[in-house]
Design a protein that fits this description.
Strand content: 25-35%
Largest sheet: 6 strands, mixed
CATH class: Alpha Beta
Number of domains: 1
Strand order of the largest sheet: 8-9-10-5-11-12
Length: about 290
């Protein structure tokens, strides 16, 4: 693929489809990017089953959007992808999750191995408020025991803040408190912090739900740029956002009293423009949910 080729990203405006053209310059060769795959994943909280045999391949170097009404298991599924679900005392699961074919739940694998390769950005920005912007970016290195000299740390701070779309706004105040940034800036700081440990997959749980439209646009632009070097999976209730940023999409649904399942998944433009299931069509066009 040459540097002047483009990728067409679908957009939704009410029920109409539009396109946004962005450069198709990939920072990391596609063969070096990670595929994450869930196979027959079921999940419980106590005796309450919330997911039933969900299978989904999230392609390397793509942005996969998980859509569906509240309570259908999207966020639970996302947490299963980096072994956060098991931290809840009553939680259990079945099935498998593999990263490039390696089972992340294999008994020989450490929990930190999964977290190092599969990062997470949460719905509410959660920088460490007492830490500076600089310290926030480097926090992951301490948690994973990664060694770096001062020069390497400074390069990493700049690189991650650039990738997080925040460098130009904070480069002259890196020692200011991370909690003093605006909501949108805090979320971008959390993205930069996640990138510091160089994950192969980045999970994002409704990262823009608490942000204003301007901050949302910046985060979306950041996601599109990051997808050139990391596989991204995002949970979103915003259909326009799913159409703008993702190339693949999975529609989750839980009928009353039943666990969540995937009704339909595939190419985002096809799912929004020509869904194969009437329930998908109803949801993406705002008729329920």
């Amino acid at each position: 693929m040459s540097s002047d080729e483009t990728i067409t990203i679908p957009r939704v405006d009410d029920v109409e489809m539009h396109t946004q053209v962005i450069p198709a310059v990939r920072a990391v060769p596609l063969e070096d990017l990670a595929e994450i795959r869930a196979q027959d994943v079921s999940a419980w909280f106590g005796t309450h089953k919330v997911l039933d045999r969900v299978s989904l391949t999230m392609e390397a170097g793509a942005i996969t959007a998980l859509i569906g009404p509240s309570g259908c298991g999207k966020s639970t599924f996302l947490r299963i992808l980096n072994r956060m679900h098991e931290l809840i005392p009553s939680a259990s699961l079945a099935g498998s999750v593999t990263l490039d074919g390696d089972d992340i739940y294999d008994a020989s694998k450490k929990l930190t191995d999964a977290r190092r390769q599969i990062g997470m950005v949460f719905q509410k920005p959660n920088p460490f408020p007492a830490m500076s912007i600089r310290e926030n970016v480097l926090a992951g290195l301490k948690l994973t025991g990664t060694k770096a000299d001062r020069h390497e740390r400074e390069e990493l701070i700049e690189s991650c803040l650039i990738k997080g779309g925040l460098w130009n706004e904070v480069k002259d105040r890196l020692d200011a408190a991370g909690g003093g940034l605006s909501g949108g800036q805090q979320q971008r700081l959390c993205i930069a912090r996640s990138l510091a440990i160089k994950p192969r997959v980045l999970l994002m749980d409704e990262p823009c739900s608490a942000l204003d439209p301007t901050s949302t646009r910046v985060i979306e632009e950041t996601m599109l740029e990051l997808a050139q070097e990391v596989t991204i999976v995002i949970v979103t209730h915003n259909m326009q956002q799913a159409a703008r940023v993702s190339s693949q999409c999975a529609f989750f649904l839980a009928a009353q009293g039943t666990p969540g399942v995937i009704v339909e998944h595939g190419d985002t433009e096809a799912m929004f423009g020509n869904p194969q299931d009437s329930r998908t069509a109803d949801y993406v066009n705002g008729r329920f949910g």
